[in-house]
Amino acid sequence: MTSRAAPRAFITGCAETRLSAQETDFLREARPWGLILFRRNVETPEQVAALVSAFRDIVGRPEAPVLIDQEGGRVQRLGPPHWPAYPPAGTFAAIAETGEGPRAVEAARLGARLMAEDLAALGINVDCVPCADLRLPEGHGIIGDRAYGATPDEVVPLARAVAEGMMSGGVLPVLKHIPGHGRARADSHLSLPVVETPRAVLEATDFEPFRRLNDLPLGMTAHVVYAAIDAERPATTSRRMIEEIIRGEIGFDGALMSDDLSMGALEGSLADRAEASFAAGCDLALHCNGDFAEMREVASRSPLLAGEAARRCEAALARLAQPHKIEQAQARAHFSDMIAAS
User: Fold this and answer.
1) Which of 118, 127, 133, 259 is catalytic?
2) pLDDT digits (tens, 9 = 90+) for 241-283
């Protein structure tokens, strides 16, 4: 990848359902690696597909990543009447808890495959799933039923199935929130959670699902302080957390993006937050809210993709594959029956 052609190492949002002239000029000049969509950007399938296509035309990369948070349950940016409602991760966990682990895995994989079908039809090629955080009693409800279980043994088979279902449908998964948000007692959208659990316990519990899933192509950091390792900085801006834990102990070698830099857990200007995330070792800065002034700040501190960051991003995109064909009506009926039976 030459520096002239390289995108900048950030993912941006946009404000509305169509790109404004101001946003168009910004995208053409700043060349972000990707675009992330939210409900504010969604009206109809035709409109979303046109927005995706317009972004790629502007940045000049036909497979430029377009991301979305489509987990099911509370976190579902595409929904009725144009798209199906999908169950949360907790539904598959509940099936597994009845002793029907294989059926839970099959349902999780099929549900993800069907979501990928929805996304790929619009040109969206990255989904921010699976959430491999543990569902722990002391944790804030921001995770809750977004988790696939309370232990690594419960989480990993279901999270793996979701990732496989996505990739078989031509959509890349994003493993989140590395190295684990389930023990956090605060919502990082609003404030900075501090976890004081000993490192040995974290390694055996919270970090373990991510270690077992470390071969996935993309990952997202947690805006959480793990005081036993770095008491001053959340994982997103902690070089020690990223080098020693995420890249070292967990062994994740995929492209690593920050969680949304505009969240309340972080302090300082958006430019300072972006700079801190790159200094810590993030490959990509993620900014979601579509605030144009903030978008410009993030872009101003985002380098051109180069070196190891470029290698990891290119390796992730190389795993995009043509979807395996399915009989949609039959698959959707089977999925509905599996969920209804639970």
Assistant:
1) 259
2) 999 999 999 999 999 999 999 999 999 999 999 999 999 999 9
